[in-house]
Amino acid sequence: GAGVSQSPRYKVAKRGQDVALRCDPISGHVSLFWYQQALGQGPEFLTYFQNEAQLDKSGLPSDRFFAERPEGSVSTLKIQRTQQEDSAVYLCASSPAGQANTGELFFGEGSRLTVL
Amino acid sequence: AQSVTQLGSHVSVSEGALVLLRCNYSSSVPPYLFWYVQYPNQGLQLLLKYTSAATLVKGINGFEAEFKKSETSFHLTKPSAHMSDAAEYFCAVSENSGAGSYQLTFGKGTKLSVIP
Fold this sequence. Notes:
Strand content of chain A: over 45%
Mean pLDDT of chain A: 93
Helix content of chain B: under 10%
Largest interface: A-B, 30 and 30 residues
Order of helices and strands of chain A: EEEEEEEEEEE
Oligomer: heterodimer
Distance between the termini of chain A: 33 Å
Distance between the termini of chain B: 41 Å
């Protein structure tokens, strides 16, 4: 596609439910990032993939958060047993090989998760 | 860890007036610095970046920013505000996480309102 696509755009979950958020990066982009943006805050790093390899998951807040990118393209961020503090916009970003180290990322519109 | 401080969560200017959005960073090494813009219901978009070349960086839509090492600042300016500039602006610094990825550390953002 022309840009980074994320789905669903909006998700409401009851506390304790599992959710899965999908990211379709720009075709051919090697690097893929997930960020979490709480209300009134800037995006915060969650995890980074280079192709299918998850090279950095230091930003995942707990073991309830899991991300994968099995074929080096589409990525899924899964949150198990959601809690209210998980409510945020989850942003996916991608970049071509070599640009990840200059921070020039292409962002999707985000998935807004609300946990009741 | 590097950090970014944006002074003023909300800035209002009149149409045609100077826009000045402030950003200060902390870093022990020469950083890569960025400004991203987020229009309502859209993903973050790169406005401009500093990667240790010219200290005055020109971006899209008439914006520019000056890297001042002595002040650890990277303020964003535009000589004349336009209604279409109303958006949220994020300053970010690129940090080598040591795990093969370069994380972006964002400020909390500044929402710019333009008054007709």
